[in-house]
Amino acid sequence: MNAWDIIKTIIFGGSTLVFFFILWFYNPFKHVEHYEVDKEVKEIIANPWKKVENGKTIAEEGRELFIASCSSCHSLRYDGIYLMSVQTNPKWKSVEKSVGRPVYRYGVLYKDRFFVPRDVYEAFAYDDLQGLKATLGQVPPDLSTMYLARGEGYLYQLILNPQKVLPGTTMPQLFNPQYDKQAKEKVAKIVAYLKSVNTPPPKEQIKRNVMGVLVIVYFIAMGSLLWKYRTNFLKRLGYH
Ligand code: HEC
Asked: For labelling alongside 30, which of 55, 92, 126, 160 has CA 20 to 30 A away?
């Protein structure tokens, strides 16, 4: 190895280290929160898979709250929640059975929740959706990927007080801390539920991280072997 080789190695190795350091420790793509989340509810949103006293997880409680408070206007197709007026329509069950697929998410199969393609659902629910549009000015959006699109701070503040975040919106305030002592907690549970639909639980996350490390180890091992036997390979390919 001459001096030039050593300099090249340092430059190449150093820039690789700097690149991954920036990517992993000062991630420029990291989601930045512009809306505040109250301290007392941050913990609730942090771990939707945590069990609470009654044996349910926070996400399951949030799902029940969602169905009770939001499904009169919003669907959440990725988790098999459709407008209340659709879900109570006896014909809907047969649509779910014939074109729906049971929801499968992060290694868990939910046999009683069905994913129905958007066009089928919107055709079936046409009158319901148009009715909502007539009274609210627009069709309330499906919330399947809303957590990814908006982040927890925005969702928390919006659900707690829609007028503050979207002035003039027709979405009503469903949990008012003035009258309901548990309002903030309930909103946090709903946000935790929306999060649980869009992000893998800790166990799954660990699995993915291990896979990532294994892939990198594989490339390093294969790269080293290729480097070690390079003259051999080149000879067999007819070079040298
Ligand atoms: C009476 C009908 C109604 C109910 C009930 C309702 N919403 Fe909405 N929601 C709307 C409408 C209408 C919009 C569209 C708002 C707009 O863009 O002005 C909306 C928009 C939203 C948005 C998207 C905001 C954005 O930035 O695009 C979210 C998230 C949301 N609602 C969550 C909820 C949750 C969670 C609940 C239950 C706690 C709920 N909504 C209950 C009517 C409703």
From this structure: 160
Closest ligand 1 atom number to CA of residue 150: 26
Nearest residue (by CA) to ligand 1, atom 19, is: 140
Per-residue pLDDT of the chain (240 residues; tens, 9 = 90+): 789 999 999 999 999 999 999 988 888 887 777 888 888 899 999 999 999 988 999 999 999 999 999 999 999 999 999 999 999 999 999 999 999 999 999 989 999 999 999 999 999 999 999 999 999 999 999 999 999 999 999 999 999 999 999 999 999 999 999 999 999 999 999 999 999 999 999 999 999 999 999 999 999 999 999 999 999 999 999 987
Residue nearest to atom 34 of ligand 1 (CA): 70
Q: Tell me, in angstroms, the distance from the centre of ligand 1 to residue 222's CA.
A: 51
Verify that 7 and 73 share a domain, yes or no.
Answer: no
Nearest Cα neighbor of 175 from 188, 166, 165 is 188
Cβ proximity of 90 and 136 under 8 Å:
no
Neighbours of 67 (CB within 10 A): 15
Domain around 230: 202-240
Residues 153 and 58 in one domain: yes
Is residue 214 located within the same domain as residue 111?
Answer: no
Same domain flag for 112 and 45:
yes
Distance 235 CA to ligand 1 centre (A): 67
